[in-house]
Amino acid sequence: GLSSHCADKFLSANWRFIMKTVSKLMTVLLIYVAIGTAGLAQDRPRDAGSKARGQAYKFWVSRSSNAHARDNARSIFHYGRIEQAVPAAPVQEHLTAVRDNVQKSQKAISELKKDNPENKEALASIARVDAIHKKVLEHCDRMDTQLADGEGDSEEVCACCVDMHRDLSAADAEMEKLMKALKIEKLELPGKDGNSVPPQK
């Protein structure tokens, strides 16, 4: 009767309390396991070559972007020689490519700067490349002014391209020094089946 009913209520209340406690403990345990797993993942030693490969990738992104900017400066120069009055639209297309590539090169090289705070030789080369890139962007602004009326004078446009091309070549020469400072090897050529081919000497 009554005593049995009270016992059932007592057991039921205690069972609910036990289940809630177990549930809380399991939640806490899962949190600790998750934190521990994350910690182990962070502490796990990285592939010894991963940093070097990352640096090489950033370097080649910067150098190839600089080369693309130079190619576009060369294209503007040859286009400018076609006629005395140079239409602005095609030139602006190449100028946009110059700016985009210079900025991409700057971003990659700034990451190399962060990665090598103790490498004075590399930092000196990076600083020189950065100064050159700023000059190139100034050349782009100068050409924008020349093209403000919808066309530019061929002689002025070509002269600006000569300066731009010279500076981008100087940046490339400085990157050759940076490559040596960072001990970066030449890129292997893509081969069949995902294999790479050593570059020609």
Entry summary:
The protein is mainly alpha-helical and 201 residues long.
Give the distance, in angstroms, between the N- and C-terminal Cα atoms: 99 Å
Instruction: Extract low-pLDDT stretches.
Output: 2-11, 27-45
Can you summarize the main beta sheet?
Answer: 2 strands, antiparallel
Strand content: under 5%
Quantity of strands, as a count: 4
How much helical structure, as a percent, in the residues? over 70%
Averaged pLDDT: 81
The helix-strand sequence is: HHEHHEHEE
SS-based class: mainly alpha
Strand arrangement in the largest pleated sheet:
1-2
Number of H- or I-type helical stretches: 5
Approximate shape: elongated
Structural account:
The chain contains five helices and four strands; from the N terminus they run ααβααβαββ. By secondary structure, the protein is mainly α. The strands form two sheets. It has a two-stranded antiparallel ribbon. A two-stranded antiparallel ribbon has the order 3-4. A hairpin with a 5-residue loop joins strand 3 and strand 4. Helix 2 runs antiparallel to helix 5, helix 3 runs antiparallel to helix 4 and helix 4 runs antiparallel to helix 5. The termini are far apart. The N terminus is likely disordered.
